[in-house]
Amino acid sequence: MKVTIVYLFLSAKSIEAQYNIILQSSSNAKRTTFIPQIGDSAILCSSYIYSLPDGEKITKGDDGIAVQFGMPVVISELTNGWCRINSIFNAPIGYIPIQDIEIIK
Which residues of the chain have pLDDT under 50? Predict the structure, then answer.
């Protein structure tokens, strides 16, 4: 018997509709924006990367490592909305748009 676990992350609008509630933040709540920095650890939120910014989509990094969703990486360079990423062993992998990574703090 195979069991599959599926995690769904609902948007605020979906939660409001599902539970018939209104969600809102406090008027004095501070917003936090995580801006990647060189050297930050991150998780890939994509199953592919790019050879260059706006270049070809690839599924293997510069060193031949297979790219996977959820893979831990390190940001080595920032260029116009793109991150050059390395493996956790500092091997260059490729590029990924900033919106396709999650910073680990």
Answer: none
**What is the strand order of the sheet 41-44 is part of?**
57-58, 49-50, 92-97, 82-86, 72-79, 41-44, 101-104
pLDDT (0 to 100) of residue 83 = 94
DSSP states along 63-92: TSPBP-TT-EEEEEEEETTEEEEE-TTS-E
Residue that is written with structure tokens 């050879």 in the block: 51
Q: How many helices (H) and strands (E) does the chain have?
A: 1, 7
Place of tokens 């409001």: 16
Q: H or E element: which one contains 28?
A: none
